[in-house]
Design a protein that fits this description.
It is a single chain. By secondary structure, the chain is an alpha/beta fold. Helix content is 43%, strand content 23%. The chain has three domains: 88 residues, Winged helix-like DNA-binding domain superfamily/Winged helix DNA-binding domain (Arc Repressor Mutant, subunit A), CATH 1.10.10.10; 94 residues, Periplasmic binding protein-like II (D-Maltodextrin-Binding Protein, domain 2), CATH 3.40.190.10; 100 residues, Periplasmic binding protein-like II (D-Maltodextrin-Binding Protein, domain 2). Strands 3, 4, 5, 6, 9, 10 and 11 form a seven-stranded mixed beta sheet that branches. It has a two-stranded antiparallel sheet with strand order 1-2. α1 packs across α2 and α1 crosses α4.
């Protein structure tokens, strides 16, 4: 459906309006936009005339945005950011598509980044922009086309494709293993066990999987896997790590596995994207590639 032209103000009107709301004055907006203060005021008046809505209260020479105007400004800001991203993507890659992807920090640096060269080689027309997000967000409020998600709950109003289940291993540095020899999973209970904030019951579940019902020693708490992995590699204690994080460190000799089985984690890694939007060619290319690599 094509909207009436009066509901689609020009970018110059919207830019002036957004800048005044954000900076708090026509003078600051004028400096930012390289315009005169009078020009900004006229743009605001033209926008109000086009929308037939009063957006500001006039107090002397000051413009005070109304509450509805502030809400409108938030939506306008997102739209302008989307236009800017699209323009930058077109300029950087006029012959291909752009994919804005939200990633989990550790997954992105440890699993995805080493493989991205292959994707870019296979899809030279795609520009990939990455941003980190730790928790699910509203696709309508962000400018991402898709996200890498970990968990058990579905992402609201999103399609998803499973990449792989999490598999957990216990590991420590070779030096730590030499100083604290262990022959069975139960031997780990007396050692400093590194903790992750988002998974406070991980060690309890690991011991239960091995049929061990005994108190165990708590170690340092971390908010992400990456620093916990580094602490384990430097002999701080034993860490429970996703297999895809631990294996490269084990291969390089910075970590060794301790006694115990590989245990299923608490969720799966998935690629998710908005349900209401048709996937772009860039997203389709990435989805096909990551599905093949994850297998």
């Amino acid at each position: 459906m094509t909207l009436p032209r009066r509901y689609i103000p020009s970018v110059s009107l919207l830019s002036a309006f957004e800048a005044v709301c954000r900076t708090g004055s026509t003078a600051a907006a004028a400096r930012e936009l390289s315009l005169t203060q009078g020009a900004v005021s006229r743009l605001i008046q033209n926008l109000e005339g086009q929308l037939t809505v009063t957006l500001f209260r006039r107090e002397g020479r000051r413009l005070i945005p109304t509450e509805p105007a502030l809400a409108y400004a938030r939506d306008v800001r997102k739209a302008l950011e989307l236009i800017a991203r699209a323009s930058l993507g077109l300029k950087a890659n006029p012959g291909g598509g752009v994919l804005n992807l939200a990633i989990l920090p550790t997954f992105g640096t440890r699993w995805l980044a080493p493989r991205l060269g292959q994707f870019l080689d296979e899809n030279p027309g795609v520009t990939l922009n990455l941003g980190t997000r730790m928790r699910p967000f509203d696709f309508a409020a962000e400018t991402f086309d898709a996200a890498i998600h970990f968990g058990t709950r579905p992402w609201p109003e999103a399609e998803h494709m499973k990449l792989f289940d999490e598999r957990i291993v216990a590991a420590c540095s070779p030096g730590f293993a030499a100083e604290h020899p262990t022959a069975a999973p139960a031997d780990l209970a007396s050692l400093p066990l590194l903790q992750l904030e988002s998974r406070p019951n991980a060690w309890g579940a690991w011991f239960a999987h091995h049929g061990i019902d005994a108190p165990y020693r708590q170690g340092v708490m971390f908010d992400q896997f990456a620093p916990m992995l580094q602490a384990a590699a430097h002999g701080v204690g034993v860490a429970l790590l996703p297999e895809f994080l631990a294996d490269p460190e084990i291969h390089e000799g910075r970590l060794v596995r301790t006694p115990g089985e590989v245990v299923s984690g608490v969720g799966t890694y998935s690629l998710v994207w908005p349900a209401e939007a048709a996937p772009s060619p860039a997203l389709i290319a990435f989805r096909d590639w990551i599905a093949r690599v994850a297998r």
